[in-house]
Amino acid sequence: MSGILPAGVLRAHYSFGALHQALQPPHAFLALAQATEVLQNLKKFLILATSYNKMIQIFSDQYFMKIALQQALQAQEAGEVPIGAVLVHGKTILAKTYNQTELLTDVTAHAEILAITAAANQLNSKYLKECTLYVSLEPCIMCAGALHWSQIGKLVYAAEDPKQGFMRYGKELLHPKTKLQYGLMADEAGMLLKEFFARRRK
Ligand SMILES: [Zn+2]
């Protein structure tokens, strides 16, 4: 990656590792000012990264995860918990969604559920066997159940969710044929959530 990205993008990207460290206990309770700085850095990174998307291995997992993170940012700006998803068939994006539980007053309106419904409509197929879902946070058990029924081909999530994530119960919640990958851009996705909850606690 270092060979194809401008230095500014790299600096913005690698600064997240350091920021992530700074967020660990005993500094877990961030001042709002710090949290805001983190968010600004993340926005800067995403804008820069978007500008150079074509240079970063287009249609790679990282490419699509960045779009999921951009959706998470949109959720944050709409006052929703910042979680975003992208559902892809081959190189085609079928759905870009973010959490809309506040807007729709619906606890089931998670980014993953909205993406599954939109993609199934696009494909006119209730099964998504050839598709990949990229989501910024480990899905909850409701979404893992929906992904199971959709028989999704592959799930890629960024940050872990030890409290609400389906992995507490194991990969078995997914369909046996679903491939699983996680941890991609986890720091960036985690930052958004930490900033959101730090701001909400204030
Ligand atoms: Zn969910």
What does this molecule look like?
By secondary structure, the protein is α/β, with parallel strands linked by helices. Helix content is 46%, strand content 15%. It has six helices and five strands; from the N terminus they run H-H-H-E-E-H-E-H-E-E-H. It has helices at residues 7-23, 32-51, 61-77, 111-123, 141-150, 186-201; strands spanning 84-89, 92-98, 131-137, 154-159, 179-182. The chain has a five-stranded mixed beta sheet with strand order 2-1-3-4-5. Strand 3 (131-137), helix 5 and strand 4 form a beta-alpha-beta unit. Residues 1-26 have low confidence and may be disordered. Bound molecules: zinc ion (ZN). Residues 110, 112, 139-140, 142-143 line the site of zinc ion.
Termini separation comes to: 38 Å
Q: How do the SSEs run, as a string of H and E?
A: HHHEEHEHEEH
- Based on DSSP secondary structure assignment, what is the total number of beta strands? 5
Q: How much β-strand is present in the residues?
A: 5-15%
Fraction in helix: 40-55%
Class by SSE composition:
alpha/beta
Low-confidence stretches: 1-26
Number of helices: 6
- Report the major sheet: 5 strands, mixed
* Shape designation: globular
Alpha-carbon Rg, integer:
17 Å
Lateral arrangement of strands in the main beta sheet? 2-1-3-4-5
Mean pLDDT: 83
Bound molecules: zinc ion
